[in-house]
Write a structure and sequence with these properties.
56% helix; 209 residues; 6 helices; alpha+beta; 5-stranded antiparallel β-sheet; Beta-Lactamase
């Protein structure tokens, strides 16, 4: 009986040691796995942050004024062109009314406010507003584009954001106007030249000029 009891205790201690060893091994493996998972997570997060910075730098470098607004017309995001156009600080304009920022003295409904209103109330997912116009407040010829944009994280309740892109096309428009005026002068000179060539008397030549 005594020998059997000692043997049983010995086996019990051995089993306990094995269990502790196995448990410690599993714990170490889990810790290693957690460390690897944490490392992968950190690397992934770093890549996402780098991609985000690169994307923001790219958008900030664009000459177009790009803003994302919510369904209430308030700015969610914008690029640094808003500073180049001296409209405000890129961070401080967040949550400000887009129309009030672009047209601070606008009292009457204008092309911009009307377009935003139509875009917000347009149920079509691909509804796009585009127009080229001279903006008196900005003192620029503007190519405006407004369209819905999907941003689920910013719209948990399914509300809709809009992306508004304003491009300064003043140089092109002024060049087109100058070309139009020049073409008009050339047409006038051509008409005078034809009249002179077909005139039969000094009086007719005088009338042609």
């Amino acid at each position: 009986m005594v020998n059997f009891s000692v043997k049983e205790d010995s086996l019990s201690n051995k089993d306990t040691t094995n269990l502790l060893g196995n448990g410690l091994s599993l714990l170490l493996n889990k810790l290693k796995g957690d460390e690897q998972a944490e490392t992968v997570l950190k690397v992934t997060f770093s890549k996402v942050e780098r991609a985000k910075r690169e994307w923001e730098s790219t958008v900030d470098a664009l000459p177009e004024l790009i803003c994302i607004i919510d369904e209430n017309g308030r700015i969610v995001r914008t690029n640094r062109t808003i500073e180049k156009w001296t409209l405000g600080n890129v961070k401080r304009v967040i949550n400000h009314s887009y129309h009030s920022l672009i047209h601070p003295q606008c009292q009457q409904p204008c092309y911009l406010s009307n377009a935003i209103h139509q875009a917000v109330n347009n149920t079509s997912a691909d509804g796009v507003f585009e127009e080229e116009i001279y903006d008196q407040t900005l003192n620029r010829f503007i190519s405006a584009r407004i369209q819905p944009v999907s941003m689920k994280d910013d719209n948990p309740k399914g509300s809709r954001n809009l992306v508004i892109i304003l491009k300064d096309i003043s140089i092109r428009k002024r060049a087109e106007q100058a070309l139009h005026r020049q073409n008009g002068r050339l047409l006038t000179l051509n008409a005078i030249n034809k009249a002179i060539l077909s005139a039969d008397s000094p009086e007719e030549i005088a009338q042609a000029t």
